[in-house]
Amino acid sequence: MKTKLTQSEQFKILWDFIAQHGGEVEARGSEELSPDQKASLRHLASGKAENAARVELIPLLRSNRNALAYLGEQMKALRPGFSGKSEK
Amino acid sequence: MNQNDDDLALVRRALSGEEQAAAIIYDLRPQLVAHLTSKGAPHGSISEDAVANFLGDCFGARERSQRAATNRVLEMYKGNGPLIAWLKKSCWNYFLDSTRGPKPVSLEDSGEEKGSAEAISAPVAAEPEVIAQIVAALEYAFSEMDPLTLIFLRLVYLEGVSQSDIATVFDCDNSTVTRRLKQGLTALRTNAEAFQKRNAGLLEIEWPDLLAICQSPPGFIYEN
Questions:
Q1: Is the CB of residue A53 less than 8 Å away from at least one CB of chain B?
Q2: Above 50 in pLDDT, residue B117?
Q3: How is domain B128-214 classified at the CATH fold level?
Q4: Residue A87: CA atoms inside 13 Å, Cβ hemisphere, count?
Q5: Residue ranges per domain, chain A?
Q6: What is the pLDDT of residues B22-53, one digit of tens each?
Q7: Handedness of CA B155, B161, B162, B165 (dihedral sign)
Q8: Which residues pair with A64 in a beta bridge?
Q9: pTM for the full model?
C-alpha cells in the first residue's frame, strides 16, 4: 500500500475512526471474562494450545475486545515466541 | 490537434489576457467546488473561497514567493492531460495546503488526475454524510475480513504483540503473519473501495482522502 503512513498507523486510524463514529464491527463487546475463559486464553498465550483449542477461542476473540486485550497482555508477559517454536 | 492541445491553447490565450478564454476557465468554478466537496471538503463558503482563491492564483492574483517560478499557477499546466483534471487535482492540493499550513503545494502537470495513494498528514473536515459513508464502507470492509487476519491485525497494531509471538501462538510461520497483516490492510482498502463502487449514488472517496478524513480530530468544527 503506497502511503506515507505505516501499516500500523493506517490500521489504528481506521479502527479508531470506526470506534469513534459508532460503526458496527466485530469485537465491540466488552463482557467480563469468566475464569475459565481467562484460563483458556492464558493457555493459548503460552503457545501450547492445540489447534482445536485455538479454533474454539476465535469466536470469543472476534466478539469480545476484553478477550483480545487479555490475550495480548498474556502474550506480552509470556513471550511464547522466545522459545524458538515459531522459527519454522 | 487533440483535446489536450485545445486545452493548452485555451490556457495560453487566457494567460495572454484574452478575457473570453479566461472566462471559460472561470466558468469551471462550480465543477471545482463540487470536486472539493465530493472529496470531503465542507460545503459552503470554505470550499467556494478555496476555489476562488485558487482560480485567482491561476492568473497571478497572489504575489510571487521567492521559491516560486511563477506567480501564475496556470503556467504550470503543460497540456499533458485534460485541463479539468489538472485543475481538480491542483485545486484539491491547494485546499489541503490551506488546511495544513505553509507547506509547498505540488502542482506537477501529471497529465491526469492520478489516484495517488500518498496519505495526507493533515486532518480534513468532512460533512456528516461523508462521515456516514466512510463508516458504512469501513463496516463492510471489516465485516468481509478474514476473522483470523483481523485478530492478527488487532494483536499487532492495537495490543503491541510481536509477530513472532503470534506465529508461535497460532502455530504458523513468521512470514505467514507478516503476509496476513499486509493482505489484511489491502483487503480493507479493496473492500471499502468496492463498497463505494457498488453503491451507486455514493461519492467515491479515494483511499488517501479517506485516511485523511478518518484522521480528523473529534468534534472538529468548521464554518459554513
A1: no
A2: no
A3: Arc Repressor Mutant, subunit A (1.10.10)
A4: 4
A5: 33-79
A6: 889 988 988 888 888 887 777 777 788 888 88
A7: negative
A8: A29
A9: 0.58
**Cell, residue B67:** 521559491
Cα A12 to Cα A7: distance, rounded to the nearest angstrom: 9
Sequence-separated (6 or more) residues with CB below 8 Å from residue B148: A58, B170, B180
* Alpha carbon distance B64, B56 (integer Å): 13
Do B3-100 and B128-214 show the same overall fold? no
Q: Which of A15, A17, A81 sits opposite B164 (nearest CB)?
A: A81
Q: Which of residues 119-158 of B touch A (CB under 8 A)?
A: 119, 121, 131, 134-135, 138-139, 142-143, 147-148, 150-151, 153-158
- CATH fold of the domain at B3-100: Rna Polymerase Sigma Factor; Chain: A (1.10.1740)
How do the domains of chain B map onto residue ranges?
3-100, 128-214
- ipTM for this model: 0.87
Is the CB of residue B137 less than 8 Å from the CB of residue B192?
A: yes
Q: Of B128, B105, B122, give the one whose Cα is nearest residue B209.
A: B122
- Helix, strand, coil tally for chain A in percent (to 5): 65, 0, 35
DSSP string, B100-131: H-S-PPP----SS-----PPP-S-----HHHH
CB contact under 8 A, A81 and B165: yes
User: In DSSP terms, which residues pair with B57 in a beta bridge?
Assistant: none
- Which residue bears the cell 510571487? B64
- Tell me the C-alpha distance between B123 and B99, whole Å: 8
Of residues B217 and B190, more confidently modeled: B190
> What pLDDT was estimated at residue B5?
86
Facing A26 at nearest CB: one of B121, B135, B150 = B150
